[in-house]
Amino acid sequence: MKKQIGLVVKNETKAIEQADRFEQWLTHKGLSIVRRQSSMPAIKRTKGLRERSPASLFCVFVLGGDGTFLSAVRWIGDQQIPIIGVKFGEVGFLAETTEDRLREAADAILENRFTVRQQMRLNVQICRQEMEIARECAFNDVVINKGALARLARIRTHVDGQFLTDYRADGLIIATPTGSTAYSLAAGGPIIYPSVPGILITPICPFTLTNRPLIVPDSVTITIQLTEDASDIMLTCDGQVGIKIDERDTIIISKSSSPVQMITLPEQNYFDVLKAKLKWSGSRV
Fold first, then answer.
1. How far, in Å, CA of 253 to CA of 124, rounded?
2. Is 170 marked as a binding-site residue?
3. By three-state DSSP, how is residue 157 classified?
4. 145 is in an annotated binding site
5. How many Å apart are CA 13 and CA 94, to the nearest integer?
6. Three-class secondary structure of residue 161 per DSSP
7. What's the chief localization of this chain (predicted)?
8. Average confidence (pLDDT) over 215-237
9. 41-80: per-residue pLDDT in tens?
10. Has 151 been labeled as part of a binding site?
């Protein structure tokens, strides 16, 4: 039976053209390709069963940016299929290699010259009046955000059943270490090394300036509620799927038992990616 390779491609001319050449190259090697086009849809709540990748995939190559990678992670779901990001243009935080090294990286993977780093995801359960109305997973972050014209949200937060605080803010971000370099970073949160076992809680523009980002163990359960009449408040997971929430809802967030299997290649260094993305000079004074 032919080895199956997943290929998730950004809906962009350059990525599609490269994917066409890469697919032909893989086919000539006797491999079977399952290809999926990716685009960034408007955020909406999904209904019914979402499409899942075949369980038989040996690995998944993602040709595009971080948004395309996140859509590929959702496509894989809780299946433990190794995945690798291939970045076009600037270096992406979720990319392991670049366009010009794609075939070199593919040869290494097909010859099993790679390792896998397990990166945590978050389980998200939304209950309305004690009845579950939605269940999602997030690889980067879970974001509670108010609309442009909504007043400050009051977000009551508990950690393992213990009251933490009522955040009065534009919103709240619950992020994984992987997601610490995404929206949380823009909101003033710290960068967490990918293998650090923690969950990051970052308020967005808090009314109380002493409400600072907080890192808690990845073993905890975080419970969130809106504590007053609320309108135009949205919960989103990885910017890919969202649902409107109000004061009737309880959001329960915890570590998923199904991590993402990130392919790592020899000579690739996380700090090199970090310095390139953040444009750190690395010079000494």
1. 5
2. yes
3. strand
4. no
5. 21
6. coil
7. cytoplasm
8. 92
9. 545 554 545 678 999 999 999 999 899 999 999 999 999 9
10. yes
